[in-house]
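Subject: for your reference before the review

Hello V.,

The reviewers asked for a structural picture of the protein, and I figured it would be easier to keep everything in one thread rather than splitting it across files. Below is the amino acid sequence we used in the manuscript, unchanged from the supplementary table.
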Amino acid sequence: MNEILKSDDTYFLGHPKGLVTLFLTEMWERMSFYGMRGLLVLFMTREVLEGGLNLDPVTAMAIYGVYGASVYFLCVPGGWVADKIFGAQKTVLYGAIIITLGHYVLAIPSEKTFFLGLVLVSVGTGLLKPNISTIVGQLYKPGDLRIDSGYTIFYMSINIGSMLGYLVCGYLGEKVGWHWGFGAAGLGMTFGVIQYIFTKSSLGDAGLNPTLDVGEDSSKYFSIFSIGSIALFIAVASAFLGLWTIDPLQLNQLIVYLILTVAIFYFVYLYLFAKLNQAERGNISMLLLLFIGSVLFWAGFDQGGSSLNLFAKDYTDLFIFGWEMPATFLQVANPLMVVIFAPFFAAFWINLGKRNLDLETPQKFALGCFLMAIGFFVMIFGVEIALENEKAGVKWLLLTYLFHTLGELCLSPVGLSATAKYSPKRYKGQMMGIWFLSSSLAAGLAGLLASKSFESGLSSMPDLFNQIILALVAVGIVLIIANKFVKASTNLEDIDDLREVRESKN
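And here is what came back from the structure prediction:
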């Protein structure tokens, strides 16, 4: 059925009123996240006299990879906590508060508070990120064609927020003081928490309660949650007391293996032990396919905050009319382009759907991978110029970010929408966590790749980018071919409702 289901709630650009609350909450959270993230590698690699940690680029890239992987890895238990204990709405609030505390801890000028702040931001983001995206999907009825458009609008909030973060936090961090930038991130997140508290009533029942099976008790899950929280506290506290240490590069590798193992076991569990019907298993196959595409895409995309960020700082001519702009300002290009192009993509997908010409989700993913590959192809020319002339013009990074952005719009909001549409009702929060687990695995790989890119200095970059290009083209071709054999259904809500009725009668 291709008709848009009628809804009385068209408050926000033809979409439900609750989308405003989620839009603004996500905007402030992303402002704080990307504002801080844009400073991480630069702060860690600057000399102590410049207020930094004076780490070598390889170590800094590894820590960046560990942090990025941890943020998204924790989305899996974050989705579980919402599904089984608190519900998505409360979990988002708790996560937002923890993130806010983390940014304020980062603002304290100390090496230990720096790493403690990263832990708090990681935990809070793991609670907030998958569940706010899940709530977006629950604002729409099954079969509502507005959902792809809704996620694209929601995605604009991410990029408006990141743009604010790069400009405000980036300027304060590079020009005033690193910890001023971290503090500004905390202030932005404070606005997000206040806004969410006062407007979350517009969400209605979306994500209000845990999605437990009939007769299932959440108390046993709360016990597991409590034990896990205590274990995490002990691990962090012992690390700060110096009871154990680990090489960042080795930790990055370990996390990649751990995430990969978790992903494999979780998909195996869903196929074999989750009591899914044939239609649901078909949807899980689709989500597995998208998971693979997402990992390779984001492993390339995350070079923007690591290797490309250092390239901007050390190998790009940043002077404009005699003024040297902060390197983080170049990262504004991506969110600005998203804000510009996202409405066109939103309208484009809807118009294609109305004409029964809409691309299948794997085809959209493949297009995103191809565009990402073109971006790295362009960047190779920029690196070659830097090797010859010591500094490259900003146009090479801007062109690279343009193609990366176009690829992002083909993949990221579509992936969020697909996860919301194709996930079984009982596993929506967890499956959104699995979607972000792909970003976690990608961030870990990105950290390893970025570390590799500086093993032999700038000359290592062209070979690395060529490898990324080949991988992206290969996975794009696989996605196109696999699309002919993997089909998914959007009627799982009805299937789950029927199951619940039958179980209640029994």
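For the response letter, the relevant points are probably these. The radius of gyration is 22 Å. The first helix runs from residue 18 to 45.

Happy to draft the paragraph if you're swamped.

O.
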